[in-house]
Amino acid sequence: MPFHVEGLVAIIVFYLAILFVGIWAAWKTKNSGSDGDRREAIIVGGRDIGLLVGGFTMTATWVGGGYINGTAEAVYVPGYGLAWAQAPIGYSLSLVLGGLFFAKPMRSKGYVTMLDPFQQLYGKRMGGLLFIPALMGEMFWAAAIFSALGATISVIIDIDVNISVIVSALIAIMYTLVGGLYSVAYTDVVQLFCIFLGLWISVPFAMSHPAVKNIGFTAAQNESWLGSIESLDVYSWLDNFFLLMLGGIPWQAYFQRVLSSSSATYAQVLSFLAAFGCLVMALPAILIGAIGASTDWNKTMYGLPDPTERQEADMILPIVLQYLCPVYISFFGLGAVSAAVMSSADSSILSASSMFARNIYQLSFRQNASEREIIWVMRITIFVFGAAATAMALLAKSVYGLWYLSSDLVYIIIFPQLLCVLFIKGTNTYGAIAGYLFGLLLRITGGEPYLYLQPLIFYPGYYADKNHIYIQRFPFKALAMLTSFFTNIAVSYLAKYLFESGSLPPKLDFLDAVVARYSQENMDKATLVKSDNIILNELAPVNPRRSLTLNSTFTNKEAFSDIDSSPELSNAEDNLVTNTK
């Protein structure tokens, strides 16, 4: 394949434009807020992200390289087809559910990260445990899409994969480093526009290629790109669908946009707009997958064997751009894929660094850290996490397998914990730890084909593939999630009954989760509203009332009703209210 100088120039111009927008957004942030709001501006954009920019950035967070490449691949692969392209519907419903049930309580309580309610109710230890699957999900996702970008660029302009990955990662890290969420949000607007324009320009040219049959005709054939779901695969299909729909909610990248909106109502509207945007942005990827399935590759420069036999089905989108479109059109498509990758990668890197700086560094270790210190910790971790994701993209051979496993852990562990902490009264740290461990155990013992991890528990309907790896048809992921949820509730209420009834002595409450009213753990929770640790307006919706009390500030009032009634904390509360006047 010849080296395309024009393609290299096009990608350089695109990257420079994205970098310029990111730096401009950082400059705009620096000049629009006070020094005291700098940390909040980096993490949640000063809580003034409007509907237009917010809708674009939330949509672009989901419409990444994996989203459009994976959708095109699912439609193209024989035996799967559109019926197995679950991401567009699954993620759209995920955003709808997030807007209906989760966006309002999270935004109205004024949290800064997704982990705040966990640390508030369960304490810093549990917050640290939940940070692990959340970090793994964000990091492996960024690594997976960086890897996809490198392969895409190498297909179209024949440049070294490692160079393309490193340069792309450096651009994303640079503007995220200097501008935080503002830079990510404004570059998302440009990137989403490039995705929409680049893919839709490519579709008519690819569809009109002489080697491509009419996709309406091929849809009616036996091996149709519409696909089908066999009766034996129904439970597996449902398991994966619920993973996308429910597991797409508990991600910091999503809640960062929710918490950055100017009001709780806006947070809900942004979720609904993004759900519609995800469906619209999936259409060109679906058409490209259908075009690939309707192509006689022997009549193209690609030749035979076809992409499926060469095991290049995952690259069907860049292959269609390269071999079925004119050269200058394929460069538009390349820009679209690059934009999609960067729009998701920067969000993941910023999400991971935000959770670490606030929930691990500040609230767990350095509760009196200054504003400047937290900002520098965020900048350092943005670089470290970005470099780590880049290294995994270059070195790990099964980075997609790692991401599949980590995203499963987000669904199985964090989602049921989020349900409990927001909607189930009476849960405590003992139940949260038990649910965490049971969910983790059931997921790991179910196996993971992408990592060649054999199952230890064989559910009904399992079978061995050609590599002698056992595949589970039973919806064991949903089982693990439900087990984690009900275990949390059952163990929480059991622990509460045992301690409050006197069946267990108070000294055995080593986590200070039930009977220790003035424990250090509860004092750690109380730091969430101390004026020297957190800006008060972070915990208020939009217009904070001056008479806020400790009890009215937290999500779960029951967890702190005992604390508020104590004489020791009453004086501290009075001082806090006095200082806000």
TrEMBL record:
Its main location: membrane. Homooligomerizes at cell surface. Interacts with SEC14L1; may regulate SLC5A7. It catalyses: choline(out) + n Na(+)(out) = choline(in) + n Na(+)(in). It comes from Terrapene triunguis (Three-toed box turtle). GO terms for biological process: acetylcholine biosynthetic process; neuromuscular synaptic transmission; synaptic transmission, cholinergic. GO terms for cellular component: axon; dendrite; early endosome membrane; neuromuscular junction; perikaryon; presynaptic membrane; synaptic vesicle membrane. It is found in: Presynaptic cell membrane. Residues 562-581 are annotated as: Disordered. One of its GO terms (molecular function) is choline:sodium symporter activity. It is a multi-pass membrane protein. High-affinity Na(+)-coupled choline transmembrane symporter. Functions as an electrogenic, voltage-dependent transporter with variable charge/choline stoichiometry. Choline uptake and choline-induced current is also Cl(-)-dependent where Cl(-) is likely a regulatory ion rather than cotransported ion. Plays a critical role in acetylcholine (ACh) synthesis by taking up the substrate choline from the synaptic cleft into the presynaptic nerve terminals after neurotransmitter release. Pfam families: SSF. The keyword Ribonucleoprotein does not apply. Belongs to the sodium:solute symporter (SSF) (TC 2.A.21) family. This is High affinity choline transporter 1. The keyword Cytoplasm does not apply. Keywords: Glycoprotein, Ion transport, Membrane, Neurotransmitter biosynthesis, Sodium, Sodium transport, Symport, Transmembrane, Transmembrane helix, Transport. CDD domains: SLC5sbd_CHT. The chain crosses the membrane at residues 6-27, 48-68, 80-103, 129-157, 163-182, 189-207, 234-254, 266-295, 315-341, 374-396, 402-424, 436-458.
